[in-house]
């Protein structure tokens, strides 16, 4: 159940009650595709840096180690030793990204494994079954994520099919949650709004799926090549057509600036690979924007990545040392940068929640965006 605690303009401050604990929103979900954050980050680390929700990938875990293996091990929480909420995506985005290897039909999608090429079929029922085996807290509905530049005719047909698939997902999840051997009988289902950059298709789809009274609603198919302006325009149009009393999740977004803008438009769930991916390449986030620790100017810099930061990297190590580790290709360098970035994102969300609570979100957003543009002293 989702509680809307406060609104500040369109920004929402909420709390989602789940079987694995409460989620304070707005929230950034830390992405652990194959049930681990890339960069040698453990679930004990996630606890330390203030992670509320971990996100894992249905397709990747289905391929390896296999969702049946995870089920036999007691579900994803037990398998990866994590007692807080987990969201699993549906595999729909992987179908989109494996465009050269797939065939979409009404029953579902036929495609090839990216690991060994073996043929896989996934439809709404299969996606729900895999996610039920994983026993995540929140399962995402199986959808097609069409290219944001697909023509109107294709987009409309794709969205109509996604709606039909969503109804099948809902029916299958209700069936699975009633079975005696299901690990998590309280698994939640989030539906996904699609429609590319066609406002009218998006709005009609939002209106249609809102009638299904799901546990939450996501806006998918953005941050896949369209401009930031297009993304904000679509959010301005679509979010008011999704239920205010349910969580709104913007999938795969994004930069700190994207998050600040999307919160201002009523979004309260986010996920993105940026903090971990950038961290693995020595790019770290600060209140003054992003730094590349490979730069020579950090060779003798004895300051932490960010003054006053409470992350494990900043508590102990200098920019100079972390730069040395990165240059020497020592895994610790990568790990420290990823820990810092995830802490930065988690802490940013905490500040956002505090600002909404205090009724000063607009000012906070402006100050923070200005800070990103202002070089450090």
Rg over CA atoms, rounded to whole Å, is 20 Å
- Quickly count the helices: 15
The CATH class label of the largest domain is Alpha Beta
Low-confidence segments: none
Overall body shape:
globular
Structural classification: alpha/beta
Largest sheet: 8 strands, parallel, barrel
Under the CATH scheme, the architecture of the largest domain is Alpha-Beta Barrel
Number of domains: 2
Number of strands: 16
Catalytic activity: 7-aminomethyl-7-carbaguanine + guanosine(34) in tRNA = 7-aminomethyl-7-carbaguanosine(34) in tRNA + guanine
Pathway: tRNA modification; tRNA-queuosine biosynthesis
InterPro entries: ArchSynthase1/Queuine_TRR, TGT, TGT-like_sf, tRNA_ribo_trans-like
Pfam family, one: TGT
Report on this model:
GO terms for molecular function: glycosyltransferase activity. This protein is of the alpha/beta class and 377 residues long. It has two domains: 271 residues, TIM Barrel (Alpha-Beta Barrel), CATH 3.20.20.105; 91 residues, no CATH class. The strands form four sheets. Strands 4-5-6-10-11-12-13-14 form an eight-stranded parallel beta barrel, surrounded by four helices. The chain has a three-stranded antiparallel sheet with strand order 1-2-3. It has a three-stranded antiparallel sheet with strand order 7-8-9. Helix 7 runs parallel beside helix 8 and helix 13 packs across helix 14. The chain is globular. The termini are far apart.
């Amino acid at each position: 159940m989702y509680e809307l605690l406060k609104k500040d303009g369109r920004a929402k401050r909420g709390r989602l009650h789940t079987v694995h604990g409460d989620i304070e929103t707005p929230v950034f979900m830390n992405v652990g595709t194959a049930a681990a954050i890339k960069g040698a980050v453990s679930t004990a680390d996630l606890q330390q840096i203030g992670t509320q929700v971990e996100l894992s990938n249905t397709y990747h875990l289905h391929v390896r180690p296999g969702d049946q293996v995870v089920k036999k091990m007691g579900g994803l929480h037990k398998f990866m030793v994590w007692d807080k909420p987990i969201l699993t995506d549906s595999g729909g985005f992987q179908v989109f990204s494996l465009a050269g290897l797939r065939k979409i039909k009404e029953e579902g999608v036929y495609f090839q494994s990216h690991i060994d090429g073996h043929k896989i079929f996934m439809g709404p029922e299969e996606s729900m079954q895999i996610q039920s085996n994983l026993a995540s807290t929140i399962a995402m509905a199986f959808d097609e994520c069409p290219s944001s530049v697909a023509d109107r005719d294709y987009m409309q047909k794709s969205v109509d099919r996604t709606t039909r698939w969503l109804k099948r997902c809902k029916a299958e999840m209700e069936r699975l949650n009633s079975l005696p051997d299901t690990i998590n009988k309280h698994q939640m289902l989030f539906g996904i709004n699609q429609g590319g950059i066609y406002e009218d298709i998006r709005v009609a789809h939002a209106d249609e799926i809102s009638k299904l009274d799901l546990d939450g609603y996501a806006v998918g198919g953005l941050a896949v090549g369209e401009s930031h302006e297009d993304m904000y325009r679509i959010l301005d149009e679509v979010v008011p057509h999704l239920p205010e009393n349910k969580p709104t999740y913007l999938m795969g977004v994004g930069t700190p600036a994207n998050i600040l803008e999307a919160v201002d438009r009523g979004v309260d769930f986010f996920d993105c690979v940026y903090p971990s991916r950038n961290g693995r390449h020595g790019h770290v986030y600060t209140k003054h924007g992003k730094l590349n620790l490979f730069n020579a100017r950090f060779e003798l810099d004895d300051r932490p990545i960010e003054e006053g930061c409470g992350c494990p990297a900043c508590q102990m190590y200098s920019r100079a040392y972390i730069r040395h580790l990165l240059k020497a290709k020592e895994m610790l360098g990568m790990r420290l940068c990823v820990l810092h970035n995830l802490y930065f994102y988690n802490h940013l969300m905490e500040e956002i929640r505090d600002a909404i609570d205090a009724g000063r979100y607009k000012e906070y957003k402006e100050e923070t965006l200005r800070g990103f543009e202002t070089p450090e002293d």
